[in-house]
Known about the structure:
Elements: H1 6-9, E1 22-25, H2 40-51, E2 55-59, H3 64-74, E3 82-85, E4 90-93, E5 98-101, H4 107-117, E6 123-128, E7 131-134, H5 139-148, E8 152-154, E9 168-172, H6 175-186, E10 193-199, E11 202-207, H7 212-223, E12 230-233, H8 240-245, E13 248-251, H9 257-261, E14 265-266, H10 274-282
Parallel strand pairs: 1-2, 1-12, 2-3, 7-8, 12-13, 13-14
Antiparallel strand pairs: 3-4, 4-5, 6-7, 6-9, 9-11, 10-11
Amino acid sequence: MMGTDANTLYSEDSAIMSCFDFVVTDLDGTLFYDRENICDRDRDALHRLKAQGIRCAIATGRELDAVVPALDRLNLWDDFTHIIHSGGAGVYTIATRENQMTGMLSIQTLCEIFDRYVDLGLSFVLPMDGKLYVSRRTALLENEARLLCYPLVEVPDLKTIIYKPMNKIVLNAPFEDIDRALPILTADTDPRYQWHRSHDNYIDCYARGISKGTALTALCETLGIDPARTLAIGDNENDIQLLDAAGTSACPADGTDTAKAHADYVCCPAHEGAFADMCEHYIFERE
């Protein structure tokens, strides 16, 4: 795991004149076009941002432990200064390796969520202690565990293994089952938690008020960055508040219609280099 002093890489002396001081990207479905790989065009764009002194951060629904192996494998650590993870419940500073967490779901709340929605017939997923606990083992979840480098453990009643507050619990199912369940879940007005679709096959549950957008706003305040000078890209419902919080926003052409409606610019599809397309449109073409 690598990390370079952000103040060295992103000093004012090294930065060129730009409309943006901070660029933030979602991972799955955006920078990672197939949840595993980044195209060369996007990698080149990250290098250009770094060379121009523009800070870049990740904003993902993944747990931090599920981001680390991907950045290791793709050798991307030096391209970012921060990781907004767990849907905004955590912010990791790469230079100092400091991880700040907020907005945890209590043990009681997690158990009540399980009891309330177990009859939907979807598989509950709980990333905990470096393992992926699931209420029902499926081929889709076996592939997910491989992707995230997590051991997969099937526990039909997840309540029996929840022993500490967690930042999220997830539902997994085929696309059509997620579509069926989503209106039921998002209609839940419980003040303790909220549901957001994060992928075709996933709906994430976080503490109410937690989002990538609130995390970006707080991080900008910490870093002394004007939110109006931030540029963000995301592809799904859990990115909407991120897109709204940024000064300028973009969405890949293969993102959801809802996310595209909140974006200032619709890029090419993710696998063609949506992140680079955004940077070329707003930053590189203005050099």
